[in-house]
Amino acid sequence: MKWLRYGFVTGPLIGALWAVIMATVAAVAVSFFTGFAVAPVIVPTLVFGAWLGFVWLPDSGRTRASRILWGVVLAGVVLAVFWLISPALRAGAGTKTGALIFAWVLFAATTAWPLERILRGLRFGALSRHEFEEAVIRFLTGFGYIFFTVIVIIPFYVMVMTSLKSQQELLQNPLDFAIDLSRGAELLRSYFELFSDFNFGSYLWTSFYVSVLTVLLTLLFSVPGAYAVARLRFRGRAAFSRSILLIYMVPMIVLALPIYIAFSMTGLRNSIFGIVMIYPVTTIPVALYMLQGYFRGLPAEVEEAGLMDGLNRLQVILRITLPLGLPAIASVSLYVFMIAWNEFLLAFMLLDDPSKFTLTRGVAMLNSSEIPRQHLMAGAVIATVPVMALFLGLERFMTRGLTAGSVKG
Amino acid sequence: MAAATPPSGTGPLARREARLAWGMLAPTIAIVSAVIILPLLSIFWISFKPISLADLRAPSPVVREALRGRPAAPGDAARIEYRLRNSSQTKPIRNVTLADDWPPGLAVREMDGRCTLDGTRLFCDLGDFEGGQRETLKIPVTVNKEFFDAGIDPKATVPKLSGDADNILLNGEFTLENFRKVFDGKEFLQVLWATAFYTVFGTFGALVVGLFAALLLNRSFRGQGILRGLYLFPYVAPVIAVAFTWVTLFDPFSGSANALLVQMGVIDRSINFFGQRPLALIMVTVFEIWRYFPLSFLFILARMQSIDSDMYEAADMDGASPFQKFRYLSLPQLLGILSVLFLLRFIWTFNKFDDIFLLTGGNAGTRTLTVDVYEQAFAVSNIGAGAAVAVVIFCCLLLFSWGFFRYISQEEGL
Lengths: 409, 414
Prior knowledge:
The structure holds two protein chains of two kinds.
Chain A: H1 7-34, E1 38-40, H2 42-56, H3 64-84, E2 89-91, H4 97-119, H5 129-163, H6 167-172, H7 189-197, H8 200-231, H9 237-247, H10 252-266, H11 272-297, H12 300-308, H13 313-324, H14 326-342, H15 345-350, H16 359-366, H17 373-393, H18 395-405
Antiparallel strand pairs in A: 1-2
Helix pairs in contact in A: 1-2, 1-4, 1-5, 2-3, 2-4, 4-5, 5-17, 7-17, 8-11, 8-14, 9-11, 11-14, 12-13, 14-17, 14-18, 16-17
Chain B: H1 12-47, E1 61-68, E2 77-86, E3 93-101, E4 106-108, E5 115-118, E6 121-129, E7 134-143, H2 145-150, E8 160-165, H3 177-182, H4 185-217, H5 224-236, H6 239-249, H7 256-264, H8 279-305, H9 310-317, H10 322-351, H11 354-359, H12 369-379, H13 383-408
Antiparallel strand pairs in B: 1-2, 2-7, 3-6, 3-8, 4-7, 5-6
Helix pairs in contact in B: 1-13, 4-8, 4-10, 5-8, 8-10, 10-13, 12-13
């Protein structure tokens, strides 16, 4: 691997890889943005990137004149490759020149500027291990940010944009996610139809109050339980702690089967009451586990002082532990709310009556060949937005809830 | 004088504390055992039962009541008809009875031998019904003036029916057929393979990708918070929303991914990403990685930020290169959380149902054990076989959690 550690090898290599990544990103971005396909061509892109990597290498080890000279000479090679094979970015069938130029500008900018940053600090000749590895890390970092941002954003972008389209537009060009702002309120047509024809207002409300009730019931059960496990000494405490963890490893589908049978026989199926009965039980172990970890971290001395001053246990919990544990309770509540809001399996199995659907069950109903895709995506957006808003608004609590809740998939 | 001995056993204070603790835990224990432990045990019971979806509704008598003969004036003849049938085509019902309140003003002309009328209350003892049996009970009546005065439709009161039927869940009939069916041949091997592939690669993938993401964000720069929030999106969004988005995106006919690849010239014809072997299984695993890398990333990041920076400074002084620092300093520190995460995620990926069910419905070689439970129980309507698969899952889990606790007890943290 030693031969890699020369500036004139490392630079072009990193440049070539970076150019391929950026060409792909630029092509996908422009295609999804304008609806006209632009394709990266691998060999010319590699050559172009390698050239740029060579040119951007700092002066050290060579004179400026030689750098410019080589740059110009090799540019001729790049152009020759472009002319002989194809340019780095190629227009797909029917793509307008404007889109192609846009893609080129995007590609050139996102290749040249970051590449200069990545290669800064390299030398032309032999590199020390530090210099080499740092350049590689800068490359990987840049790649990582772009990779993760792209893979996270694309599905959500597709979800939102599809929901704003009309059936005709979707069939015409599935690639075209540009929206026609002149349609005005027409853009939101799928949403209006979901609320007026598909009863989504009621699903939204059902999901909301089911989730809130789940949170309240969960707290009601898990706060005393967590306190007992965290603070009180009794035989079987460790075993209890473990069985909580064990219980929360039981897959829902295994439970759903007998619950379905029991609910069918008792007539609880198709009732919100049944759902509200089941949801908290699935979240109590998680909440109990999270809360007891937090309660354990609170200083016991404060509580002991309270006991000395004549409070009984209940008063200690209400006046000392709960106020101190408020942030944890907020995290747990948010987390439980999220679980309940996103829950799909039980709602799917236990609810058949469209008047009683929760939001997730309502969205599942939209997944049929008779209902157009934009309605399905609009439903998905409606289901996502509240939980996202909650998440973004209270990210600090949410992140902690997620970390503490740890294992719940 | 007797030597002073320290008190042994549990004192009254300790007992009181323990009592309080159990008191506070009691509601949780009660509800959790009712809804989790009990169903778990019942799964074992059901898995030995020859029971299908249709058996869930116990056979019951069904009736339709009608007033025939169109009485128009007092004194007209009419008849009350009860059409009865057994809701089950195969299973008998014993001791069927019918009770109904009649409106006033109906005089019976000829009573059916099995029925008695007490005032306005009719009671019939109809004996046993065979599977699929139908019967019509006719009671001729004369309609009096009172009936028209009151103006009550005989149908207004719903007749009450009763009957004893065998409940398949409770009787003593057992079978090993369910397990035989589940373990039968190639299909089960296919299911096991899909489960193993999905679980192992899904877990590893999410862990490695999560580690990469954590390394990226383990530095402070402007927008770090925003990126961290953004990278959590896949996990926070409802599974139903993101799964359907993926399905839409990769649809073979109208999906944007296919359109993009075709127009770019990468592929000639649309690929059915979620519909062909072995691509579907890979796609489902990729989805799993995409959706759950945020979780591992969050954990690893939290652990990274608690690593002391002194060590890195010392390493810098000693001239360690960045990769060496990662390999010899960060990785050993992260090994604990990585292995805990691996075990937990392994179990949870193994348990995953929603994602695969929504993406492929278990088709094209993506049927894992959990999806098999659903398929057997609801698609094939064989609840018993579904329960048998659930028992298999449960046994696997017991094995995993044994490993988990063995390992976790040595690990810090969880």
